[in-house]
Amino acid sequence: MQPRGNCIASEKGARVVATMGLEETVDRLQGVDLLRNCTNEQLKEVAHLAERVQVGEGEVLAREGRIGREFFLILSGSVAVTQMGRRVNTLGSGDFFGELAAMDPGPRNATVIALTDLDVLIIGPRELSAMSDIPGFRGALFRSMASRLRTVEARLAELLEAQDS
Amino acid sequence: MGTEGETSGGAGPEHLQGVPWFAACTEEQLIQMARIAERLRILAGEVILREGRLGRELFVILDGTATVTRAGRVVNILHTGDYFGELAAIEAVPRSATVQATTDLDVLIVGPREFETMMDIPGFRNALLSGMSRRIREADDRLAAYEELEDPAPGVPEDTAAPPEPLR
Hints:
The complex is a heterodimer of chains A (about 160) and B (about 170).
Chain A: E1 15-16, H1 22-29, H2 40-49, E2 51-55, E3 60-62, E4 71-76, E5 79-83, E6 86-91, E7 96-97, H3 99-103, E8 111-114, E9 118-123, H4 125-131, H5 135-164
Antiparallel strand pairs in A: 1-2, 2-9, 3-8, 4-7, 4-9, 5-6, 5-8
Helix pairs in contact in A: 1-2
Chain B: E1 6-10, H1 13-16, H2 27-36, E2 38-42, E3 47-49, E4 58-63, E5 66-70, E6 73-78, E7 83-84, H3 86-91, E8 98-101, E9 105-110, H4 112-119, H5 122-150
Antiparallel strand pairs in B: 1-2, 2-9, 3-8, 4-7, 4-9, 5-6, 5-8
């Protein structure tokens, strides 16, 4: 894979890992839940489409309100997700984020900061669209988004109900 | 399905052309979708899907208006060109809301098998993904606004109106 340079909205600048081979990345992808239904060939395709980057602890990968369209898949390390300064989630290996802005152009709805050094896969919106041609990946992505949508809408409904009573 | 709707035969691509959701689809893709989906007429007042029940169909409103409720509360009004039922189509879980026809409806109904076939059409798939992303974002924003109201950041004076009950 030819690294295309630093493409993330990181303030200190992330280091593109040029030394890691495709095979090594495919090995890493084998343990990722989101990709568990993909064949080895499909994982190779994913590794081709994505860029693998190492990000230092404390770096900001996405900032609430800013434009950014990359999708991130954490291979190792953990990140904090905050909204309006409030920690709303912590994500680790195998988790992903950035899919909302990748699918529907608009400002990031949360800030994501690396809590540790990260090994992360970065996928642009075009590449993500190409990846959703892979049935194993597509099914998992859709299910995860449907489940997230269901969860936030259920919480919202609970809040509205609590407000009424 | 628990409705008394009558099928009004197959859909033609002309029925899909006005649906904004399909705007990114080519003519050929619309023809393909029209072939695999079915058209149905539903009378005003009928319940098309019920919260908590199983059902895997996805519906696209070709004409008319429907009301979405959760626990008896109206959460959305859907119009011509809108769709519903996609969560259960994707995940095979109980319906998260009830949808009732407000007016007579002309709908496109897509079964789970047909849905899988339609997912192979990039225009459809991308439109579905961006629609879901938008909904997640909207719900997230509303949640964040509620939480802010409930627990304002330091230094922000509290509203004089009674704050809502602690919510969690």
